[in-house]
Amino acid sequence: RTNSVLIDVASSSEADKIENLIQSLDLPVSQVLIEAKLIEVVLSDENSLGIDWEMASQVISEIEPTTTLTGPIFGRASSSLVPVSGVFSFAISNKRVNAVIVAVSKQGNAHALSQPRILTLDGKEAKIEIIEEVPFVSGVTVTSTTSGGVTTYSYSYTIETRSDIGITLTVTPRIQKDRSVNLHLDIKEIRIVDYLELPISAEAEAIGVRSRTPHTADRITTQDVVVWDGQTLILGGMISTRKSTIVSKVPFLGNIPLLGHLFKKTAYEDTRTELVIFLTPYVIRSFGEGKMLTNEEKEIEKQPSAGIIEKF
């Protein structure tokens, strides 16, 4: 779609002014390519309180200085990396991302949750979702049948689904005149921390059948930070504890109504994890800049090992 305007001018000088004004307004819309890496680290016993970022920062020798609006940014590796409200952030050169990932992986079992690239307009939000649907038993209908003095129980389940379990990362970039980028970040994480076993009826309780409803924990983090074009922002300190239920039972005997619990053993295990987010904004003000970034991405994809994160 094009817009045409007919302007009647009295002199060539006015025409020149109008032409200059049109040229200043007729600019391509600036865009931001956001490259993200979301890594989950299963913390070892030695690092149960979280990743030792002081140790990780020594590996990359220097954390790049940057500016900040309202979110905490640490300018040097020698700075005190103390979490603010449990979450902290700092910026590094994009070339040092793999070194940080290696340092982090040495402190626990790390694996990539997602590595998306999203193109968005200046001032428009981009959303990254890592969501899973979790079915659970919300109800049980028990039917008993007696024949020849023998009572047989049958039951049917009512299944519901939670479709909001996971991580939602919303990024709104705003490009500054000096090509720095103000990133407004909203991070929402919903995790299942446990399952609540609730009684349904006396009949269901008699045969050991209960509904299992997921108990979730929500965490919402908001930050405003400023990084340079092509600089990588790292967010850490988002630690969660997951409770796992491990049921061991004797085959066949463990499924016997009323007596099955005698042949079962239930154990509970706590797993602590830390979510680490890497965000790299690339400013695109012209077609040429966009083409150059596209060519760079194609070259990276051709490499047999495009990133050390794939080895986890």
From TrEMBL:
Query: What's in the keyword line of the UniProt record?
Result: Membrane, Signal
Q: Name one GO biological process term.
A: protein secretion
Pfam families from the entry? Secretin (PF00263)
Q: Where is the Type II/III secretion system secretin-like domain?
A: 103-285
Which PROSITE patterns does UniProt cross-reference here? T2SP_D
Q: Does the keyword Ion transport apply?
A: no
Top-rank taxon: Bacteria
Intracellular or extracellular location(s): Membrane
Task: Identify one Gene Ontology CC term for this UniProt entry.
Answer: membrane
What PANTHER family does this protein map onto?
PROBABLE GENERAL SECRETION PATHWAY PROTEIN D, SECRETIN GSPD-RELATED
Indicate the family of this protein: Belongs to the bacterial secretin family.
Specify the protein name. Answer: Type II/III secretion system secretin-like domain-containing protein
